[in-house]
Design a protein that fits this description.
The protein is of the alpha+beta class. The chain contains 16 helices and 16 strands. A hairpin with a 3-residue loop joins strand 7 and strand 8. The chain is globular, with a radius of gyration of 28 Å. The relative contact order is 0.07.
Length: about 450
Amino acid sequence: MGMHGTNDASFAIRRPQLRRLGLMAVRNACKSKIANRNRTVCRRYFRRQDAVCGRIPGIVKETLADICEIPYPGTGVPDCRAVFLAVIWEKARAFESAIRAEIAKGFTILAETECFWPRRRFTGKLAEFYGWRDWFCWWNKSRRCGRGAFRVIIFEDPSPQWQRAASMYGRETIMDVSVCRMKYTCRRMTGHSNRFHSSVNPEETEMEFKALFGKPIADWLAERTGWHIPSAEELERRFMSGDLVRIGDGSRRICYRIPGTGLCVKCYRSDAELDARMRPDGSIETHRLKASVLREIGKCRCSDKANTSCQEWRYHQELRQILPPNLLGAFPDVLERVFVPSRGWCLVENEIANADGSSPRRLLSAFRDADPEGRRRLLSRFDDLMAGLCDFAVRFYDPQNVLVQEGENGEERLRIVDFEPATRTLIPVDSLCPECVRMKFRRRVARYRNVYLRKDEGVLES
């Protein structure tokens, strides 16, 4: 055939290649256009911030009591603290150490915590956090800051200087001069204005904190008073020195007490602990794990998505948004994840103990040792707790991890110390459909409850 014939093999081969090259050229041009636009936005933002920060020293101080309903520190109001909130979004986590050092340079860090929003609800939560309703704007911002786990740092300015200034969007507001400069420096450090955020006045702090944790910042800080979450370096040093006390064993993870802190840490078994299991009396026995469990430990130890500790931490973040206080109180009060190089992802939480310092007993053990009246009381509380969790479709499928905690006056409280929300099935239908979650939850609870019915059927029926 001729050069323009349809049966020309060389042309038939080149045509798909040309099509692919054309698509690649269009895609690269779009990427280049978006990158240029982002760079232009960043230049405009930093030029505007240069102008704002340059004008700050010349701004005249105002009478703050007439400007905002919230009493600002420094206006003579007692017990009023200048507390602020900083957020290091996912795409700025590489600068986390430098940002923390910058904040600690001029402020007092009160607490740090890790937060996580489900990916499908990230844009909506971001709009709620900032208080705006432009959904396309927040979809674009969520893409720039990253939809993964982010770090929240709560810090206090011991000597705030309040002044009136214009925000980057032209709105007049009251801001702390030192916090504003720190915010600008950290954004310069990350190279983009969307990767770091900090509140600049108490009103903004309170609004954003309620959007994050659902409670006032004063109540949250009061709950965490006395808790010091150890860093990765500190945990690594304690693991190497043998300072941790082994208090519980599971098939995959081991729980250690951190002496002197009121906390415990859970992590996957190390290579030296794969064939050792702790008995109820505290002695160690040889126990051979299944090959599938060994493969899972090696695969999931350092995986952010597959690690059970990370899954528990993420699910606890979701439960804090939906559960009422009476149900949320059954779970640990403090739950943080820390990556230790030698042990992978670890879960640090407050140790649940009785008022006298002893370890609480499992519900089954306490039930068997109680009198008939005590059994009815424990069973009633167990049914109430399980019914509440079932109503909210909580993925808690292991009722044997329910403990009985004894208070100072002998009152009993049911606590949950270990919950694995992820399923190991190939297609996790029971995790995606709430009704399937409830069906599996009821089935597991009924199976566990039959342990009581088989042993003390006459007592329970009376």
